[in-house]
Specification:
- The termini are close together.
- Helix 1 crosses helix 7 (265-279).
- Strand 6, helix 5 (198-210) and strand 7 (217-219) form a beta-alpha-beta unit.
- Strands 1-2-4-3-5-8-6-7 form an eight-stranded mixed β-sheet, sandwiched between helices.
- By secondary structure, it is α/β, with parallel strands linked by helices.
- The protein has one domain: Zn peptidases (Aminopeptidase, 3-Layer(aba) Sandwich).
- It has helices at 16-32, 41-55, 110-129, 158-170, 198-210, 229-233, 265-279, and strands at 62-70, 73-84, 91-98, 135-142, 174-181, 188-192, 217-219, 238-245.
Length: 285
């Protein structure tokens, strides 16, 4: 069912140079836009910063602003999108990263938000140089993943809810949704939570074996609230790829200690290799 998820003009190669680009993009986001609490002026600045970063690769990006009700009142939030369009009839692959930070804790979000946003910036450049031929690919940097009080129908996942609804109303035929989160920390192991599409979870495991990184990808038994959830609720095949450490807990998570000194180019390289292998169509028949 998942054969040939995406046919590209040439196979994407996520090299150490791409990992360096991802690191620099993450570092620049942290340096220029901290904190990035959802719906704030700083978050809007971060959206423009990402827009410029994507455009600098040659790829096109646009802002999608939308209003939401939150536990802290009405807010305007902003997603950033870069679409590599083939045709209305073609299926879609969607790759997500949130860029906002946990509200109220002055968190730089180097790993939680910036690391995967940097990966997507690098990926935008790769896709610009190797455009898809038979599959629409959408990269989305999402606002409002973090909850303000506690996750619920009106708290958290605002950007992904908005995008999932928009694509559903558009009638987009989505082949797969990959949510990337916290994939820059040292000693990276990629966890694939249980609440993801079963077929896609198997695909991730197969691709990890193919690139000889199976020991760094774990099929988890936990349920994770992340930006893949609204896509699952909309009936799409979606999976979460979220980072954990092989040696120690991520004690910097949601604290001011989530800084760039925790970020490893080796981890960004592995995460980039994994997602590009998925996009290259290494899927079971």
């Amino acid at each position: 069912m998942f054969a040939n998820v995406c046919l590209l003009a040439a196979a994407l190669v996520f090299s150490p140079e791409e990992a360096r680009k991802a690191y620099n993009a993450a570092s620049n986001l942290v340096a220029n836009c901290t904190p990035r609490d959802a719906g704030t002026f700083s978050a809007r600045c971060a959206a423009y910063h990402l827009l410029d970063a994507v455009n600098s690769t040659g790829a096109d990006a646009v802002l999608d602003r939308f209003d939401v009700s939150t536990p802290c009142g009405k807010r305007q939030m902003t997603n950033v999108e870069s679409l590599f369009f083939v045709s209305d009839e073609a299926e879609w692959i969607v790759v997500l990263s949130h860029y906002d930070t946990k509200p109220g804790v002055d968190c730089p979000g180097a790993d939680d938000g910036a690391s995967t946003s940097g990966i997507l910036v690098s990926l935008a450049g790769l896709l610009y140089d190797n455009r898809p031929e038979k599959c629409n690919v959408l990269l989305a940097w999402l606002d409002g993943e973090e909850s303000m009080v506690a996750y619920g129908a009106n708290d958290g996942l605002w950007g992904s809810r908005h995008l999932a609804k928009k694509l559903k109303e558009k009638g987009a035929k989505i082949r797969a949704v990959f949510c990337l989160d916290m994939l820059g920390g040292k000693d990276l192991v990629v966890s694939v939570p249980k609440n993801g599409h079963a077929g896609l979870r198997r695909v991730v495991a197969k691709v990890a074996r193919h690139i000889e990184m199976a020991d760094r990808v774990k099929q988890a038994s936990d349920i994770v609230t992340d930006d893949h959830v609204p896509f699952l609720e909309a009936g799409y095949r979606a999976v979460d790829l979220i980072g954990m450490s092989a040696s120690r807990p991520r004690e910097y998570w949601h604290t001011p200690r989530d800084t760039m000194d925790n970020i490893s180019e080796d981890s960004l390289l592995f995460a980039g290799r994994l997602i590009t292998a998925l996009l290259n169509g290494l899927m079971p028949e």
